């Protein structure tokens, strides 16, 4: 189906559909029941689709592209929702949050800007967040929806207050770009993967810049990380052509 590299994939809520975003400028919906049949092609972007994400209610797909826009799609009919969300530079990542009755989407760009949008109106909420000009590569919302962590080209992991747009703290230690970030289940820990080949575990609960552990073993960049549903195991994927499982209690490979 895709005619170029696939950059991002995700599941819908019930696991019956897989969605993919590609450098061919499209996002595609696939049947994951038995046939892997292509159900829909979402084609409005004019450049590579870098990342995709599904809203918490499972009805809307967000796609961020190198055409400097993020687009919202109705997954029932494959049609665009609202106007494109504009960035001055290409969007690296998107993430959804729910705040009462307001559904918001967050977009982050390689120019270092972070923006929040009202999903119902497509309008930007407040001014953009920014801390320097270095690019943002990854974001993750805390389980309670009150904070967001970002991984950045300057090697820092930054914790933001979602209501004020202010930085709460910065974690330093990585020696190269931070490519992926995630939270543990209770929101007390943040994990980050970097081009320096390490995964680092940080303490959030104490509100200080405390490094808990460094997971070493990869010989090239760590570009994606994910925590198991039970919160005990971390998976890391690397450009060294391996994926590694880690015990988060002691930091040892499994």
From TrEMBL:
Coiled coil: none annotated. GO terms for cellular component: transferase complex. InterPro entries: WD40/YVTN_repeat-like_dom_sf, WD40_PAC1, WD40_repeat_CS, WD40_repeat_dom_sf, WD40_rpt. Keywords: Repeat, WD repeat. Pfam families: WD40. SUPFAM superfamilies: WD40 repeat-like. Signal peptide: none annotated. It comes from the Eukaryota. WD repeats lie at residues 1-31, 42-83, 105-127, 136-170, 171-212, 215-254. PANTHER family: WD REPEAT DOMAIN 5B (PTHR22847:SF637), WD40 REPEAT PROTEIN (PTHR22847). This is WD40 repeat-like protein. It comes from Rhizopogon vinicolor AM-OR11-026.
């Amino acid at each position: 189906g895709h005619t170029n590299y696939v950059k991002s994939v995700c599941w819908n809520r019930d696991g019956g559909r897989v969605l993919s975003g590609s450098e061919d400028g499209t996002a595609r919906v696939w049947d994951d029941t038995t046939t892997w049949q292509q159900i829909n092609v979402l084609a409005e972007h004019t450049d590579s689709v870098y990342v995709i994400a599904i809203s918490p209610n499972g009805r809307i797909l967000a796609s961020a592209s190198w055409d400097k826009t993020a687009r919202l799609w109705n997954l029932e009919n494959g049609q665009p929702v609202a106007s494109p969300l504009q960035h001055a530079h290409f969007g690296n990542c998107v993430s959804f949050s729910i705040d009462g009755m307001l559904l918001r989407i967050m977009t982050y760009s390689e120019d270092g800007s972070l923006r929040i949008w009202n999903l119902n109106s497509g309008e930007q909420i407040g001014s953009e967040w920014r801390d320097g000009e270095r690019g943002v590569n990854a974001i993750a919302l805390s389980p309670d929806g009150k904070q967001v962590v970002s991984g950045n080209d300057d090697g820092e992991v930054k914790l933001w207050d979602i209501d004020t747009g202010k930085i709460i703290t910065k974690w330093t230690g990585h020696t190269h770009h931070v490519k992926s970030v995630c939270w543990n289940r209770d929101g007390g820990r943040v994990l980050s993967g970097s081009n320096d080949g390490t995964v680092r575990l940080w303490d959030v609960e104490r509100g200080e810049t405390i490094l808990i552990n460094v997971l070493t073993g990869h010989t090239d960049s760590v570009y994606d990380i994910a925590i198991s549903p039970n919160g005990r195991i971390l998976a890391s994927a690397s450009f060294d052509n391996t994926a590694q499982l880690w015990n988060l209690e002691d930091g040892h490979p499994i």
